[in-house]
Amino acid sequence: QVHMVESGGGLVQAGGSLRLSCIPSEPSFSGYVTGWFRQAPGKEREFVAAIRWRGGITYYADSVKGRFTISMDNANNTVWLRMNSLESEDTGIYYCAVLTYLTHLTVRVPDQYEHWGQGTQVTVSS
Questions:
Q1: Number of neighbouring beta carbons within 10 Å of residue 75
Q2: Residue 41 gets which letter from DSSP?
C-alpha cells in the first residue's frame, strides 16, 4: 500500500514561515488530488489545502487563504505547502493525503483520501 511521506514541520514563532513537503512512498504512484489536513489537540481533522495533479487547480480553507500556498513538482510528484504569517491557531499535526478518485463534490472531505502519511508536527509559539 502506497503511503505518503511528510517532512518540514517544526517549532516557529508567530509570524514565521515553514515549508512542508509530501512525496509518495513509491515514485511511480499516480494520484488525482493531494490534500493537506491538520489536527489540533482535542479537535477534529480539518482541511487545509489541496491541489489537482493535472492542471494544478488549488483549493484552500478560508483560514489559510492568502497565507499558505500549495504547489506541486510533477517531475517527482512532490507537493509543497508553504506557510507564511503563521499563527498559534495553525499549531497541529499536518497530514498529507492523496485521493485517486473523487467520491464527494468537494476535495475537503478527508474520508475519500486513500493514501495518508504519518503526519508532521507544526508548533507556532505566540
A1: 6
A2: T
Report the C-alpha gap between 120 and 123 in whole angstroms.
Answer: 10
Measured distance CA(63)–CA(47) in Å, rounded: 10
Angstrom distance (rounded) from CA 50 to CA 34: 5
Whether the pLDDT of residue 59 is over 90: the answer is yes
DSSP 34: E
The pLDDT of residue 102 is 86
- Terminal-residue alpha carbon distance, the chain: 39
**What's the rounded Cα separation, in Å, for the pair 59 and 48?**
8
All three cell numbers of 10: 517544526
